[in-house]
Design goal:
about 375 residues; alpha+beta; four-stranded antiparallel β-sheet; 11 helices; 15 strands
Length: about 375
Amino acid sequence: MPNDYVTRVFDAPADVPRDDWNRLLDRCEDPSPFMRLEYLDALHESGSAVARTGWQPRFLTLWRGGVLQAACPLYQKRHSYGEYVFDWAWANAYEQHGLRYYPKGLVAVPFTPVPGIRLLAGDDMARRALLRALIQHAQDNGLSSLHLLFLNPTDAQACEAEGFMHRHTVQFHWHNHGWPDFDAFLSSLQQDKRKKIRQERRKVAQAGITFRSLRGSEITTQDWQFFYRCYEQTYLEHGNPPYLTQDFFTRMGRDMADNWLLFVAERDGRSMASSLIALDPIRRIAYGRYWGALERVDCLHFEACYYQPLQWTIEHGYARFEGGAQGEHKMARALLPTRTTSAHWLAHPGFADAVQRYLDREENGIDAYLQELSERSPLRRTPG
């Protein structure tokens, strides 16, 4: 396979030619808004994903004749936080054997467990060349391993062809079957699930809470500031500072406003909670992302993060709502289990063999888990 590409590595997203990157993204399958350079740059420039927080950018690009042929967001990591595909046991095993697991290489969108394209490429030849360039970069820079997270099928297939190991995890996604309204959606659920959702929504309404929805330019600077206040407080209540800074959301409101939908909960004319949903208007997909509340109200989280977004999704003809990482409780809201894929390369042959055996056992467990979940479907019948 010929390889006449010129490799360039960028130490900050802002250094990557934005138009070239986004143009290549638009040619790919699953051109997720989270892979746009504006999003990745905001994570960096806001101080959210930078070397100080353990995310050292090393954006890898392949060029031919001055034209960008392939690219990916590569980070040199000194921890495994903010990834949502957990490899702490691998790191511990390395340490117990006197080996360094960190730094490692990560191809992913920081703090964003959304499946989609990760290897931007015009064709499969360029995609596989990019993978080989990743391995060469890891070897040249003493990285223990490479981890490509939440891949789409095209990327996963290329990784398999280049000898990467596959790993699967489970998320929960809601699919729109053409229901005309929320009540029609509820009618597709089993009676106990339908009753529970109605009870939960009734509790929020009886508490005197109403919602406003704001999209794109309708979200004012004050709205963004209020959202961050809620988001930050909820993180701090759990004993951790938030991953994302206020400046990140300010940049989203400025550079990618059309990709955001904000729900604001109010009581007695006073805002008291909010949830922020990401949107892909082209592919008609909504993503559950962030939320926070200044007051505790029973079932408010479910209303703000599931029922309001699902109702909006139905009303606006969106095809899918992805609920983010983990959360088996989402099945009760008709978010059904979906297998997600990551790919891994380890430099140490002995550890690579051991991890492959571990992944084979883990895959059997994932298969059994998905089978168990399928038997607990909340749907009364398969919608036509």
